[in-house]
Amino acid sequence: MSIAVRDVREHELDSVLALNNAAGPAILPLDAAKLRHFYDTAEYFRVAERDGNLAGFLVGFGSEAGHDSSNFAWFSERFPQFFYIDRIVVASRRRGGGVGRALYADVQSYAELRSPQLACEVFLDHGADPALLFHGSFGFREVGQNVMAGVGVRASMLMKDMCSYAWVRDTYGDRLPQLPWVGQARHVVHAEQRQRPTGT
């Protein structure tokens, strides 16, 4: 019954797409091209497995990313540096079983070494109380609301201070130790793999 969180694998994208588009009105639908764009550009794109099955995923971007989300733009206009959770999806049969908490613990562990704040939104038009309570229990607070252009969805814009960030920045600057649990941005890993000489 354990939950494992790891980087998404390319062959899993079809399953991730199906999971996203079965999530209901609390998550915007995706098409294969948009999901592929996430795979190619997202700094953080990880899945949760439970009992060997895909149980959820989370996609995130640093504030320097050229991300085209109107909610990301809302945060960018107001806050100089943050890590943005674009979406988290948990399979309906796995909700309430700790998958969402495992993904949030993992993304927070990643973000607190790199950003002073963690940002996300909750859609308010479709019974938002469970999602707001979930985020409130993680220490998020509302910093405003945004009506998303093009879709007309009203969102509660949430942020959480990363209390470890200042110490990490003052101690290590931009040179985090090479430790397995620290991880690297996905696009950096992909770039290194492309540069690796043939046969190594």
TrEMBL record:
Domain of life: Bacteria
PROSITE patterns xrefs: GNAT
InterPro entries given in the database record: Acyl_CoA_acyltransferase (IPR016181), GNAT_dom (IPR000182), UCP028520 (IPR016890)
GO molecular function ontology, one term from the record: acyltransferase activity, transferring groups other than amino-acyl groups
Limits of the N-acetyltransferase domain: 3-164
Name the record gives this protein: N-acetyltransferase domain-containing protein
Organism expressing this protein natively: Luteimonas cucumeris
